[in-house]
Design a protein that fits this description.
It is a single chain. The chain has one domain (43-199). It has helices at 96-100, 144-150; strands at 68-80, 83-94, 106-117, 127-136, 154-162, 167-172, 178-185, 188-193, 196-199. A hairpin with a 5-residue loop joins β6 (167-172) and β7. It is 6% helix and 40% strand. The protein has two helices and nine strands. An eight-stranded antiparallel barrel has the order 1-2-3-4-5-6-7-8.
Length: 200
């Protein structure tokens, strides 16, 4: 994924290209940094937990004197044979300064479709995902200007390490850098990126 965010009044929600830093994409976890364990119970066979619940909030109130938000990317992918489908959301928890300027807690969503493929840079991962991310404008509830700026189509390539305890690690296929941590079962996976503060 990629993540280079915000121009003008949004100049600080940078997303990436090839690794989280492009419109609507998370930032790569620093090499060697432990991933935050997402909320929820590991489950290799049962239903996957909803990782949109219990995200870290209120950690971006005292930044460099600017409007900002707690930022996470959360995704869920269903697997049916080699077919992959699902959604990914950029979830923002507005701080008090952004709320005072008309911001709010909100999300921008993308619909995912693609295929289960071989792995890329993560040689010891179990499988790869090649997907197209299509903006879901009706499912996105962030301020209109932000949605127009950031809700762009993307081509995504991930590698997935499915661990025996039901947890999963998700990496960018091209760089091998970690994107997120989550859970998997026979039907798919769910994942959440590390918390970041995004400043406007």
């Amino acid at each position: 994924m990629r993540a280079r965010h915000f121009l003008p009044w949004l100049i600080a929600l940078a997303a990436c290209a090839g690794g989280l830093d492009a419109p609507g994409t998370p930032a790569e976890a620093p090499a060697g940094a432990p991933a935050e364990a997402p909320a929820g119970a590991a489950t290799a066979t049962g239903p996957l937990p909803d990782l949109t619940k219990g995200l870290l909030a209120g950690a971006c109130e005292n930044g460099p004197g600017r409007e900002g938000a707690d930022s996470h990317f959360v995704g869920s992918v269903s697997l049916n044979g080699s077919t992959a489908s699902g959604k990914e959301a950029w979830i923002l928890g507005a701080n008090a300064l952004w709320k005072a300027r008309g911001g709010k807690d909100c999300k921008i969503e993308w619909a995912l479709s693609g295929a289960k493929v071989g792995v890329g840079a993560c040689a010891d991962c179990d499988y790869g995902l090649m997907m197209t991310a299509t903006p879901d404008i009706t499912g996105s509830d962030c301020p209109e200007e932000l949605v127009k700026r950031e809700a762009k189509p993307m081509d995504l390539r991930y590698d997935v390490k499915a661990l025996p305890d039901g947890t999963a690690l998700v990496f960018f296929s091209k760089s091998g850098k970690r994107l997120a941590q989550g859970y998997h079962n026979a039907s798919g996976l769910t994942y959440a990126s590390q918390h970041q503060c995004k400043w406007f």
